[in-house]
Design a protein that fits this description.
single chain, seven-stranded mixed sheet, Aspartate Aminotransferase, domain 1, four-stranded mixed sheet, binds pyridoxal-5'-phosphate, Aspartate Aminotransferase, domain 2
């Protein structure tokens, strides 16, 4: 039997059995639902995109996988070439892996070894943000800060957590900069750790402080990348030394991630010494099917001017919720194609999932948040339908 994620198997609701997925819709045996989750932020073009299907089929007929250990291939070369021009600054060096969590592990290892290669072996601690979520592997749990997820794994050795506040960052850097390797953040929008937002001014100051103290700045854009915040990447606003992309990278087709390092980081490994090499190599890194899906996804993203679509979704959401309030609601947050309604009491969301399903909307509230990360192809009338369901729920709360 399947052991489902993030669920108490004894009490979890019966999962919805999906038989077909098309565009923004999920189909069960009997019903059809608008999907507001984009399958954990990944399915940005909707399900069953014919263009992406086609390139994957073509690639299957050529070859589905060869390792990057000692071999290379056109899909990985093409994607690396594309990402080099698609990403800002000198984020030119692509290290592939099979999931966002591993992509973040790779980024942290790169940062620590970058200093190690320069003889700065003490620089191996990490600064991360309170309420951060970076994945479920051991080091990503350590840089994360959310007991709702990782209660049984409280080990935070070598990690300092701060709020996204410049004074806090300054204080910790003044005191500890000699032992700190990097600062890692989910830029602008913290997802799974509470759907929180903060301003770009913190990132700008963080960039300057990291330069001042020889600390690498890592953006985990696994969730925010590819337009989610209304920017192609937050890295377009403030350029990090290392950025991690995942989820929407392959449009929800195949699990894959890429950790892009800038020239400075890459040069820290490029030497005559074998021991300066980066020792990591996931079996499925640069999988050709994933690379073809990513290339086609980026082509569609650019061709269809998704940034304008996302700005339109943002405006529609902001207009729709401008005058909306309810005693149960703590805050409504909207950024790009992303909506979060935080309530004071999680009891106020009990029953919402079923309520939404009964009205043709698949939503996945968690703790005291109801949220939506819309596929970018959603139409206005479909957005209004979802908004009406979310709003009308609060009449039930009364
Ligand atoms: C910001 C962020 N980083 C990393 C991850 C982990 O990605 P994956 O689930 O592909 O391992 C997630 C997943 O939600 C995420 O939101």
């Amino acid at each position: 039997m399947i052991w489902y994620p993030y669920a108490q198997m004894k009490t979890m609701d019966e999962p919805i059995h999906i038989t077909k997925a098309q565009g923004i819709y999920l189909y069960s045996h009997k019903n059809k639902y608008i999907d507001t989750t984009s399958s954990w932020w990944s399915v940005i073009h909707g399900y069953n995109n014919q263009e992406i299907n086609q390139v994957i089929k073509e690639q299957v007929d050529e070859f589905s996988h060869v390792m990057l250990g000692g071999l290379t291939h056109k899909p990985a070369l093409d994607l690396s070439h594309k990402l080099k021009s698609f990403l800002p600054g000198s984020l030119n060096h692509c290290f592939y892996s099979d999931s966002g969590s591993v992509g973040v592990e790779v980024a942290l290892k790169m940062a620590i070894q970058y200093h190690f290669n320069q003889g700065k072996c003490k620089k191996k601690e990490i600064i991360a943000l309170t309420h951060a979520y970076h994945g479920d592997t051991f080091k990503t749990m350590a840089v994360g800060d959310d007991p709702d997820y990782h209660l049984a794994f409280p080990d935070k050795e070598g990690v300092h957590h701060i709020n996204p506040n410049v004074e806090e960052l300054k204080m910790i850097l003044e005191k500890h900069h000699e032992t700190i390797a990097c600062l890692i953040v989910e830029p602008l929008l913290q997802g799974a750790g509470g759907m929180r937002m903060y301003g770009v001014d913190f990132l700008e100051s963080a960039r300057a402080l990291c330069d001042q103290y020889n600390i690498l700045l890592i953006f985990d854009e696994v969730a925010t990348g590819f337009g989610r915040t209304g920017h192609r990447f937050v890295s377009d606003l403030v350029c990090p030394d290392i950025v991690v992309l995942g989820k929407a990278l392959t449009a929800g087709y195949i699990g894959h991630a890429v950790t892009l390092a800038n020239d400075k980081v890459f040069d820290g490994f490029y030497s005559d010494k074998a021991e300066h090499a980066f020792m990591h190599g996931p079996t499925f890194m640069g999988n050709p099917l994933a690379c073809r899906a990513a290339l086609k996804s980026i082509e569609i993203f650019e061709r269809e001017d998704y940034i304008s679509k996302i700005k339109h979704i943002e405006k529609l959401l902001k207009d729709a919720f401008k005058d909306f309030n309810h005693d149960a609601i703590k805050e409504i947050r909207i950024l790009g194609a992303y909506l979060c309604i935080e309530v004071y009491n999680k009891e106020n969301l009990k029953g919402f999932k079923k309520y939404a399903l009964d009205r043709g909307v698949h939503s996945r509230p968690f703790i005291d948040y109801m949220y939506a990360m819309f596929p970018y192809i959603i139409k206005d009338r479909e957005l209004h339908l979802v908004i009406d369901v979310y709003k009308s729920w609060f009449k039930e709360v009364e």
